[in-house]
TrEMBL record:
Signal peptide: none
Keywords: Membrane, Transmembrane, Transmembrane helix
Name of the protein in question: DUF378 domain-containing protein
Biological classification of the source: Bacteria, Bacillati, Bacillota, Clostridia, Eubacteriales
Keyword Membrane applies: yes
Regions crossing the membrane: 7-34, 40-61
Amino acid sequence: MNTLDNISLILVIIGALNWGCIGLFGLDVVGFLFGGQMAVASRIIYSLVGLAGLWSITLLFKDKVPASSH
């Protein structure tokens, strides 16, 4: 995995945890921390998480290199 893949994976995990908090507790952590859902900072984070999700689709189609048998 390259750096962009790792960053995307981290952002997707953040998004999943945020959705989990919304589902379980009714709390939008990103919105809470950055001034509400419509705040510029929140919208930037939501957009980055969405783009990371789109990028992560490509991870499904990358060739897997088998582990070395050493």
